[in-house]
């Protein structure tokens, strides 16, 4: 049969609009040992020095970076989606261009203009431009987690003075850090003597705790209070 050399126009259109990646010379050399034409001696030397960091695993090209981490090389059509995912999506956080670029590197991807494209995307992000820079006041407080068992650590403090009610002007409250159990008592004064009485009732019901946390007021930092804790 006679060979049909005609091609549909759709195939010509697909070929003419196909994207050319940034690494055809590297892939041609690694896959078929084809050296790019028209390179000067200096450019050819740089090309052979750079191609040592790449290896071809059909259909992807990988680069071995300076920290010996292997990352997949990305073509142009995938760059915008990847930067958007690492910056604007819920896992991104709308960080700066440099931090977004580091998130992309941690995800295992690479292309030569990675940092430049990430910074350009952040400058065009509408939400980032409206919000401005993220400062310390926007960060969540990082508090140490206290590992303890129930009724082992108590927080104690005075509230008041309040208007006198049956001769009482202050409220001494103690909160267990584990169960959030609250013990409170109305008292006429806020000295170390009433604190000692309150603690003796507390210890007799819930045993002696490992630690008591206070604001180090004079009614909590006294010799009488320390003797009670030693007992």
Automatic annotation (TrEMBL):
One of this protein's Pfam families, by short name? Answer: rve
The record's annotation in InterPro entries points to:
Gypsy_RT_Integrase-like, Integrase_cat-core, Integrase_H2C2, RNaseH-like_sf, RNaseH_sf
Which residues are in the Integrase catalytic domain? 137-231
Among PANTHER family, the record links this protein to:
ENDONUCLEASE-RELATED
Q: What is this protein called?
A: Integrase catalytic domain-containing protein
Record organism:
Gossypium arboreum
